[in-house]
Amino acid sequence: MYSKGKKLFKDFGVILLGSFGSKILSFLMIPLYTSILSTSDYGIIDLINTSVSFMYPIVTLSISEALVRFVLEKDGNDDAYLTTSLLIFLMGSALMIPGSWILSLFLFNGKYYFYILGVFVMTSASTILGQYARGTECLKVYSISGVITTFVFLFLNIFFLVVLKIGLKGYLLSSIISLLVSVMYLIIRLEVFQHLSLKKGIDKVVINKMISYSIPLIFNSISWWVVISSDKYILLHFYGTSINGIYSVAQKIPSLLMTIVTLFISAWQISSVDNFGSEESEKFFSSVLKKYQGILVLIATIMIPFVNLIAKLMFAKDFYIAWKYVFVLLLANIFYSIESFQGTVYTAAMRTKASCYTTLAGAVCNVVLNLLLIPDFGIMGACIATASSYYLVMIIRQIDINRFFNLKVHLLRNHVEYSILLTQGMMMLTGKFVFQVLAVLLIIPVLYMERTFISEAFAMIKGRMNV
Fold first, then answer.
1. Residue ranges making up the domain that contains 418
2. Count of structural domains within the chain
3. At what angle do helices 113-135 and 139-157 cross, to 10 degrees?
4. Which of 34, 57, 141, 381 is disulfide-compatible with 374, CB 3.0–4.6 A?
């Protein structure tokens, strides 16, 4: 188990070093965005990205998930898996030519058609090639591609927004061009053209194998999209694009937490497949989950009392009010992060249908709560609906997983920590100094409950520094 933990730590370290710094730079650009772009502009950007995330699994058949899963098996069919994935991507992109027009008509009265299509094509290509890099364990290449995307994106943002002053369209162009540069890098470094197996013809066995695995994931992805994004369309219906812009900015601080989660899951998925189902793997999963939960809660409990201060530094003009919603979104992201970890159990066990059912329950819960809460409570209603839906999926998955895999959790301790985070947030909302001080003091019991993890983390860091 030690060697597996060491491998996971190494993989995570490579991805973290390659990507986290660039994510921090993106976060530091928020003051520029909120000072130049209007709340309506931000809302439009968010709706375009949200709509693309909805269409992606449908028109590409979630093939990137099958790609990384089967390439990790190292069965000698990597070229066939990659070729199949890229062919499906090309067919999906062709479908999005009219699809993007329909979306632009529905959302923006025919505006932004080329931007929707461009974001879709480049995001899809980047995702598929990135998953191939992960599957072949080219983690340095994967990380560098993320760094390239970020730095090109930030440079073009400054050029288009500050120099040329073309606002919203400049932001969207920055996104498309930066992804294009990253895709070109991946094609060259992964030697994609040398791994295409077109001369051998289409392998029907491979296609059936990949699609059989990925089809349930389409419904899973759609369900996740409903949980994550349906609130934005309901907010749009009741309040317009401006409130979506505020909601999008409110998610920027929790996105720092989600960045760590995304990078960790990228590394963890590689380790999760190895020796899955054995007693050793059950202990390894449970141990990693305990530490995973610990770092998420520690980051959140330290962030919540200082959210107001961070917002003053980062959010300009009409965006400042977004700070009030951050603590609920942080808690929601913790639930989402844990269920993402649980999702790797389903992936490793090849139980994608069961994963889909659990997510569907969250989607239904989310839509119902959004319709009930958003009309009266606006953004806060959307945040509560999101957190509740994530929590429901997390609990259902834990119960379901224990039918075939012994994944141990510390329910009482976890829920005490969740309660502390919620209390911290409520105290900050009062605006009273005494409660804000109490919110800071509530960090102490969380530190105490996670003392074992903190001690192990310091010992690991100390050991690596002494190497």
1. 2-465
2. 1
3. 160
4. 381
- Asked if 287 and 9 count as a contact pair (C-beta separation under 8 A), the reply is no
The token pair at 71 is 């390439």
Q: Which of 286, 267, 270 minimizes the C-alpha distance to 278?
A: 286
Which residues, including other chains, have CB under 8 Å from residue 102's CB and lie 6 or more apart? none
The mean-pLDDT minimum among 12-21, 115-124, 289-298, 451-460 falls in 12-21
Please, which pLDDT band fits residue 31 given cuts at 50, 70 and 90? confident
Which of 136, 267, 120 shows the shortest CA–CA distance to 189? 136
**Residue 438: what pLDDT?**
96
By the 8 A CB rule, do 296 and 386 touch? no
Task: Please give the C-alpha separations between residue 295 and each of 298, 337, 420, 424, 454, in angstroms, as whole numbers.
Answer: 5, 11, 15, 17, 9
- Whether residue 15 is predicted with pLDDT greater than 60 in this model: the reply is no
Return the residue matching tokens 């895709």: 183
Give dist(CA 256, CA 247) in Å, integer.
Answer: 16
Report CA 456 to chain centroid distance, whole Å. 27
Both tokens assigned to 99: 């699809």
Q: Which pTM was predicted? A: 0.76
402-412: average pLDDT: 87
Q: Considering only CA atoms, which of 154, 181, 134 is closest in space to residue 14? A: 134
Instruction: Return the minimum-mean-pLDDT range out of 11-15, 46-50, 188-192.
Output: 11-15
Which single residue is written with the structure tokens 């989950």? Answer: 289
Taking CA atoms, 450 is separated from 163, 409, 453, in Å, by 48, 14, 5
pLDDT, mean over the chain:
85
* CA–CA dist 63, 81 (Å, integer): 9
Identify the DSSP state of 159.
Answer: I
